[in-house]
Each structure stands twice: as structure tokens, then as C-alpha cells.
Amino acid sequence: AQSVTQLGSHVSVSEGALVLLRCNYSSSVPPYLFWYVQYPNQGLQLLLKYTSAATLVKGINGFEAEFKKSETSFHLTKPSAHMSDAAEYFCAVSKRGSTLGRLYFGRGTQLTVWP
Amino acid sequence: DVKVTQSSRYLVKRTGEKVFLECVQDMDHENMFWYRQDPGLGLRLIYFSYDVKMKEKGDIPEGYSVSREKKERFSLILESASTNQTSMYLCATEDGNQPQHFGDGTRLSIL
Fold this sequence. Notes:
The structure holds two protein chains of two kinds.
Chain A: E1 3-7, E2 10-14, E3 19-26, E4 31-38, E5 44-50, E6 56-58, E7 64-68, E8 73-78, E9 87-95, E10 104-105, E11 109-114
Parallel strand pairs in A: 2-11
Antiparallel strand pairs in A: 1-3, 3-8, 4-5, 4-9, 6-7, 7-8, 9-10, 9-11
Chain B: E1 4-6, E2 10-13, E3 19-25, E4 31-38, E5 42-51, E6 54-57, E7 64-70, E8 73-78, E9 87-94, E10 101-102, E11 106-110
Parallel strand pairs in B: 2-11
Antiparallel strand pairs in B: 1-3, 3-8, 4-5, 4-9, 5-6, 7-8, 9-10, 9-11
């Protein structure tokens, strides 16, 4: 079975500081992993995805995530936070090789960026 | 670019009403999904469909049904709305090769 744990339901950083959002997964088979972002009153937008190529994945808006199999982690980082990064972030996992891409989501992390 | 359109952004209904939430996609995707989003709980899968007239229960199907008569349209039905179904509902689609694309959501209030 697949599951995702996001550590920290709320994260606050100052503008210009490092952003680190944590995600650990559980999967019975090699997974696909995703980070989505949700701005207020909008749907989810894909930030980046890991599908078995390079373990360091670069996404949109300067975000990146590293797949670490030994730690079953897929943490999201950004070197320098911007006010526009304030949003809710969701980590998700699906079974690799499945043609029906059912996603299992974490509970989300709300990122606040202080000026 | 994939477009997933949910018919209403905000909807207010009364307890006991039959409620229809509509989702339409323009990319001929096989797979469509309905999620419910509640604070602190993330997204939970209600139902999904992998073909016309085909449906599968997700994690929380109780109190809901779905309809997929045409490939581009996937409807979520609340047979008899209750206050505990007040939530944000998100529709998503995918073709099995690319990540899911989401609509903007319908914020449903049941009074």
C-alpha cells in the first residue's frame, strides 16, 4: 500500500530564507512521487515529479526535490523564499508502472512567508 | 494545455437535496477522479473512472455516486446532502502517462 507523511502542517520562513518541506513515503513497489502546490481558492498545480530518472528533480518556480530511497524521503526545497511562494503544498505518491495513476496524498503543509 | 472545468466555484445547498457536481475535460483523457479536500486531512479520493460507464470506489465513497456517460464528463452526485459533506471538491484527469491535472475546485456548503 502507498502512503505519504508530511512532517509539519505549518512552516513559516522569512523572505529570502531556505524553504524545506518534508515528505516521507511508504510504498510496496518503486513509486512515482509528486509535489503539488495550491494557491488560495484554486486547484492543485504540479510543481515537480519523480519517475525514476535523476534523483534530484527540478520543478517550476525554483523548487527542487531529492528522492532518497534509503530514507524513503522526497523533501521539497527552495534556496530563497519569495512572498509569492505562500501556499499549501501537497506531496503525493503513486505506484510505478500503473496505467491508472491513482494518487495518495499527504495532509499538506501550509507555507507562510514573512517579509 | 489540459483544461479541467468544474461547473461551479461555489455552491450552497440544503440538507437532503440531491446535488450534482460536474467536471469536464478537453484532452480526451481516459482517467478521471473526484477528491474531497478538508483542512488538515489533505485530499481523499471519493471515486474514479477509467472509461466511459466504468467507475471504482475510492477511500470515502459513502454518500456519493458518480456518472460517466461521455468520456469528457465525470459527475459527482450527492444523493441526499448532509452537513458533513460541506467541503472543497476537486476533479482531476490523466491519461496514464502524465501527472494528474486538477480543476479549480467547487466549494460546497450544505446548510
